[in-house]
Amino acid sequence: QVQLVESGGGLVQAGGSLRLSCAASGLTFRNYNMGWFRQALGKEREFVARISGSGSSTRYADSVKGRFSISRDNAKNTVYLQMDSLKPEDTAVYYCARLVTPSGADYWGQGTQVTVSS
User: Fold this and answer.
1) Residue 31 carries which DSSP code?
2) Residues in the chain, pLDDT under 50
3) Number of other residues whose CB lies within 10 A of the CB of residue 14
4) What is the DSSP letter of 1?
5) Spatial distance between the Cα atoms of 7 and 112, rounded to a whole number of angstroms
6) Burial grade of 72 (CB within 10 A; 0-12, 13-18, 19 or more)
7) Which phi-psi region, left, alpha or beta, contains residue 8 (left: φ > 0; alpha: ψ -120 to 50)?
8) Where are the beta strands (DSSP E) in 1-118?
9) pLDDT of residue 95
10) Which of 10, 1, 16, 86 has its CA nearest to residue 48?
11) First CA to last CA across the chain, in angstroms?
């Protein structure tokens, strides 16, 4: 079955950086667009970024554009989210997902907590 396992979250000061990883198994990874989403406490889950199967196309939420970068390594079945210039409002649980529509997913990871202190 499809499994997505995130890692790399943690506590960082505002202005700092983190890189999240999502290791995928149980699927032909290169055939699928992948995405990152986040959910802050008391808020709905929101789209952060997505990447095409080949890695040639990416999209970002306006709130992270210019600060976050999504990439993938199809040889390692892994998708990454490089997060720079982090802000306290980036604090959330971050999830990776296999996309079936531009912002809709059918498989999700368990999430990794990112906390940005001011």
Assistant:
1) G
2) none
3) 13
4) -
5) 6
6) buried
7) left
8) 3-7, 10-13, 18-25, 34-39, 46-51, 58-60, 68-73, 78-83, 92-99, 105-108, 112-117
9) 98
10) 86
11) 40
